[in-house]
Here is the input.
Amino acid sequence: MALQVTGVLLLIVLAALLFKRKWHAKFPFFFTYVISSIFITLGRVSAAPDYSLYFKVFWATEAFYALFALMALYEAFHDVFILDYRDWPWFWMVFPGAVMILSVIFIGNALLHPATQAPPIIVLILAFATVVNCVKGCLFLMFLVLAWLLLGESWPTYPYGVVLGFAVSAGGSLLSYWLRSIFGTKFNSVAKYGPPVSYIVAVLIWIACCFLPPEPADRWNNFNDPEKALATVRQYMKALKRIAGKD
Here is the structure.
């Protein structure tokens, strides 16, 4: 309860910072996620004394958590790859296509091999949450590579911070539940406190990113100038060759 209340207070600070910096207009999906998280957590805290009610509130709101998180991730993806959306008409299919493929894999597996002790709706919500967590991890790795390739041009910016926070939250929860699953009840405390603590760390990352310097106005100039764009592509090719182990 104390960790949940702490998370709500930090989310309120985050919402105030986003509004103050007018980033709520630039990142409306992420701002919606933050505001909804405040009310969802307050609703769960209010329902906590009644186990049956808490169970229903938790699983009803978990679906909204996953949906709003997915929308915020899409927003970050769109901001980072905005030139690709402009130059490649088919690029809009990349993000929803990846989500669709992951959904077929995880939700299809959940339907074919349902958990015997869980209602079907909870199985579907868990499967969808797994899809969102996969998107969080994949986007984090993608942005990490992109930041290395574009060192000094696109890092750090707020969309990277958004994805980093989501990745920390998902990774902390995954590690906590994995330890409990592998090593048994002696890791009950880790499974109980790991997810909320990792989420608090994620919110702190989002708050810290609010104090990043503003993005330069000429952030994308190198991509609009043909000569500079060619030089940038050559840098990409050199970096990719180093990854492949070629001179």
Remarks:
- The mean pLDDT is 79.
- Residues 81 and 87 are 10 Å apart (CA to CA).
